[in-house]
């Protein structure tokens, strides 16, 4: 009997141990299942979100004030948006952005962002002409002409970045200007004309009459010959840093009493006409800094350019009347009175050829090309894709 009792006790102990182990195993399985269920329910809490969205390429002018300051912020913003690591390509004196834009496209960029002023924007645009890759803008310049005409903020870079990332793609026209007959450089009164080899033109400027091939220059907003170009050419760089676009008006005061230019103007295939003017401007769009709309009828994607012929007589009185004309036309009011001493006349053309006796300064989007006696321009419709703000639903 004693053996039977011991066997019974042993069986009871084994049974109790087995029950205990079963309970432990059940609890472990339950805890493991709960952990797996929780992980499946909230994967973002334990795994970082993979990069998504477009690949941005920033083509930046390192000489522009503020470029190095905003670079870390832009890269951090891209990381916060879970974008792929962006490309950052600096421009150089030898290449202000054309080659960099093409490099960005070859490396798979979905959007090429021009970081700089109007010169950088022009160069990046030239590198993207004819492609489907959009150009976005982060304006750091003085004029920021294209940004103003596209209603992209020139004071709020956060807003401009939002447009670059979330804006809509829009095809716009571009303009080309070619200097067919460069003029000898002239010096201000009291200064000597530079000797051969001292003249340092902008990249691509055909100042050399012996140049084999004239160079074409892209413009997106306004090209001009006369007073406007002379004003831009004389604007002080230090003053521009301190006063912004107002520096151009300070420079313009020195040319208010300049001579009127004898011009021969040919529009498309029409008969050439003779005119005495202060300036002739060809516009792809018409907004300038300071809230000025120089060419109200200019539309950036209509396949044609608007031409503004500007003239004044009578000294300061004529300039005052001209300024009044420009301000009033911005509000849709025109003055058709005859014999005005300050006037701005408008027409339209796809091609413009201009000859000026003696030569005069030429500019494209605020970049001075030098002096010329003959130029011609033409429009290339829908040649560039830009990233623009999405229209507001409550817009009038």
TrEMBL record:
All residue ranges annotated as the DAGKc domain in the record: 51-181
Record carries keyword Lipid metabolism: yes
The keyword Nucleus appears for this protein: no
A Pfam family it matches: YegS_C
Cofactor(s) essential for the protein: Mg(2+)
PROSITE patterns: DAGK
The organism of origin for this protein: Sanguibacter suaedae
Record's compositionally biased regions (Acidic residues): 189-198
Keyword set, alphabetical order: ATP-binding, Kinase, Lipid biosynthesis, Lipid metabolism, Membrane, Nucleotide-binding, Phospholipid biosynthesis, Phospholipid metabolism, Transferase, Transmembrane, Transmembrane helix
Family according to the record: Belongs to the diacylglycerol/lipid kinase family.
Name of the protein in its database record: NAD(+)/NADH kinase
Spans annotated as Disordered: 180-205
Gene3D superfamilies: 2.60.200.40, Probable inorganic polyphosphate/atp-NAD kinase, domain 1
Transmembrane annotation, as ranges: 6-26
SMART domains: DAGKc (SM00046)
GO BP annotations listed: phospholipid biosynthetic process
InterPro entries: ATP-NAD_kinase_N (IPR017438), Diacylglycerol_kinase_cat_dom (IPR001206), Lipid_Phosphate_FormReg (IPR050187), NAD/diacylglycerol_kinase_sf (IPR016064), YegS/DAGK_C (IPR045540)
Gene Ontology MF terms in the entry: ATP binding; kinase activity
